[in-house]
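Exercise: predict the fold of this chain.
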Amino acid sequence: MNNWRARLTHRKDKRSTVPFAWAHTRSLGLLVGIILLLALPLLTPGKARAADPEAVAVASLLLPGLGQVINGDYGWGLVHMGLYFNTAGHYLDLTEDPGYIPPEERDDEQNRIIRTNRVTYKADLYGTAASSVFLYSPFAAYRDARQMAENQGGYSTPVPSESLTDLALSPFNPEHLIQPGTIIPLLLPLYLAFSPASAESWVIQPEDDLTLTEMRRGAFFQHNMVAVGEEAFFRGYLNNGLSDWLGPGWGLTSSSALFGVAHTGNAGSANAGVAFVFGLYLGYLQQLNDYAIGQGVALHYWWNVLVSLAMLKERPQGVVMPVNISLRF
């Protein structure tokens, strides 16, 4: 433990090289690549609009809330900017704390343990909040611009209509929860969440200043932000916009590939390959539902919550279960 603590003093340089908003992605190059990709449809002829949906989405990707301001929605623009900078500032402050554990240093492969503590947990909550605003803002700007009368024509994909309230409540909407496409994928994490942990399971092991009970309660709140933000951006905006530009097949594939690259596999999250497959399924559900993303938000939320609950257990000794997963998206 003393060696583990000693390494904390050497982390500042590594953290400073990773842009905050993409703490769960591989590099700044990914962000630049996404921005360039999203800007390509702006070169497509025949789409003259008052407030170009692609342009305002890219604006909000560069600065949360900027697309809303361009749309003329100054109130929500200021809200997005304020929330982003406030939560990002708290996150950055906490990552400078000597007790903070970066994601790449939390996994103990030998003992199958993910280490955390109160400082790290609080940083993750603020980081999740800021990342969610960062991802939701382009979708909201795109949605609102698409809903303008001047922009009703010229698209092959439906106009997004779901509000933030709709998406936040989607995990608790019976209409989404009773669908076989939601229930069947959740059977495995549901089984793991309510089964005893095995001696071989990956578990989250907090230090003495944080309890598993606190983390279990926080999972229900934290993963709502994750599911809404990621589904709004990767499905509500990317899959919708790229499917209009490239067609449903290539739009689904490219948006899922970007979703995959945005996952590192650190600290219990899915790696790029698994996230790509999960993204394909979530995008398929979206296209099946006339490009509505509520069911995808519900599935994404409950998958992450159940997998987190499966990992937030005391590990017994000497009992081995045949199946084990630890992949949050």
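Check your answer against the key: Residues 2-311 form one domain.
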